[in-house]
Amino acid sequence: MATTLQSFIAGRWHGKEAHTPLHGALDNQLIYHTHAEAIDFAEALDYGRRTGIPALMKLDFQGRAAALKALALYLMERKEELYRISHLTGATRADSWVDVEGGIGTLFAYASMGSRELPSSNVLHEGPALALGKRGGFAGTHILVPKGGVAVHINAFNFPIWGLLEKFAPSFLAAMPCIGKPATATSYLTEALVRMVHESGLLPDGALQLVIGSTGDLLDRLGGFDAVTFTGSADTAAKLRGNRNLIANSVAFTAEADSLNCAILAPDVTPDDPEFDLFVKEVAREMTGKAGQKCTAIRRIIVPRTQADAVAERLRERLAKITVGDPSIDGVRMGALASKDQQRDVAAQVERLLAGNELLFGHPEELKLVGDGVHEGAFFSPTLVMCRNAMENDAVHDVEAFGPVSTLMTYDGIDEALALAARGKGSLVSTLVTKDPATAAYAVPMAAAQHGRVLVLDREAAVDSTGHGSPLPQLKHGGPGRAGGGEELGGIRAVKHFLQRAAVQGSPTMLTAITGEYVRGGAVRENDVHPFRKHFEDLVVGDSLLTHRRTVSEADIVNFGGVSGDYFYMHFDEIAAKDTQFGKRIAHGYFVLSAAAGLFVSPAPGPVLANYGLDNLRFITPVAIGDTIRARLTCKRKVDRNRKDDKGVGQGVVAWDVQVTNQHDELVASYDILTLVSKKA
């Protein structure tokens, strides 16, 4: 008897009565039902707001990043169970890897980015602060803070795990409780994931809820501090975006829609070039990976007219080697579509694409399936269509068959290729295969206007390239126009999408207190204890040291030149230096840094363990022979990363603001030093 899936609402599993039947993609056997019981979405939202938000706010950015890492480790240990269930969707092991380990890897990526780039608080300062008055008493800056709302994530059927986790990770970091709504056809895999998450006990109560089946009146109940993200068809995105309540309450809405992505073979590439084979391999991989059920799949293959037949022949050869059937059988390289409904839809779209065009590969009667019972499954042959008049044929730029289907089209000249690419009305990703940097420099800026991501592929990039169809956590995923106009991923940018940005004005002292980051001109704290002698817990933002003075001599410049090997004329040639804007010899900028370190460093062993970088370095006023410099060192920012050394002693990161001035109190150098500071044993 098929299992009835359950929703996870308000901290409990909900649903017992069977409703919509779900069938396995490989053999069309009944495997699950959705539940019939209606969900009380008022309760779900109330639970997210009253329980989820306070629980998430008890953690700071760093605490939530640590929770993501712990969850990723927990899921990775149990990935084989997810692979076993993923098999029912028709996916090969390689397809499932993108979904299962790609999703878990996204958790790892956001945990790492959060620990490196976010503060140990719930206020993210988006500086620098700007002086708004002549006397230094009034300044302004921007902060980002949690919105105090709930995020609703509506996902497509093709990536039931990655689709949820890539949205959940940044919204969780932003302290936004999530309600996940997977596509019904493969919701059983998302349910298995959420059960694992719940059983882990690693997330605060209310951080994640799950909806199996319809969203009912959920969108009608959202408010102005909530957010909706959607992945799926452009038509569904348009319907959701037009929800009256979302419009009336200005609810943030982000769409990532299916699009007619393209790959362009540049005119400089010939069949004898490695780039030609790279192009054919990339197209074939994107046609057959996940049985073509990827929002990033290559749907339009744009090639020079003179190379069309050669590309077609190589593609046919490669596609003919693809074994289709049950992915559990060795040698099978492409599985099934997600459902029989999907199979029928793809067949209907292929019929539309074939009007006036030629079928190069994919005759249904020639498809030979491998495995028992697979003839009842939702399989579809890799299908290649040829269009030789793509500038006059609208269908190839409008119709998307969401399966292993792509259309080969020809062009004359790179400008026509770019025009064909633009006919897709906006897409998630495009690929340009070229060996000529000048071609890339010409084409990419124009292609970037219509595509969310552009991959430039040549023999050099191929060594490490993750491919056309692989969104990465560090880079933006999304595209303009038909692709939805939204953005996901992109590193910490995605976290900022779920935070509220506010401008803040006040005195530098007040801005320091609000942002948790020292703003120049604000009050500092000076005492007899050198800041470098304080453990992480004892340091306070604003702790400061004004050093003694040092007069720069000619011997300093000569000695630094000898040590560094830097004999630049501005430091050593009196005559040449007189003809410059400075009118005299000046000290090396890096000597000024070294001299400043000598002024403020406390040399004895202590809590400061290591200096691992400089940020925002600027040399502002030149230092000449005879000038006298001093430095002010101020604790600018503290980040507790909850790490310990091999002896079990905790550590944190401290950023120090350094201002080096001369005898006229003019700023000569400005920078931040990043140090690792020990906690008390």
Distance between the termini: 59 Å
Instruction: Quickly count the domains.
Output: 3
In the CATH hierarchy, what is the superfamily of the largest domain? Answer: Aldehyde Dehydrogenase, Chain A, domain 1
CATH-defined architecture of the largest domain: 3-Layer(aba) Sandwich
What is the beta-strand fraction? 25-35%
- Overall morphology: globular
CATH topology of the largest domain: Aldehyde Dehydrogenase, Chain A, domain 1
Look at the helices and sheets and give the structural class: alpha/beta
Largest sheet, in brief, is: 7 strands, mixed
The level of helicity is 25-40%
Provide the low-confidence segments as ranges. Answer: none
Would you count the extended β strands for me?
30
Radius of gyration: 30 Å
Q: What count of helical segments does DSSP give?
A: 20
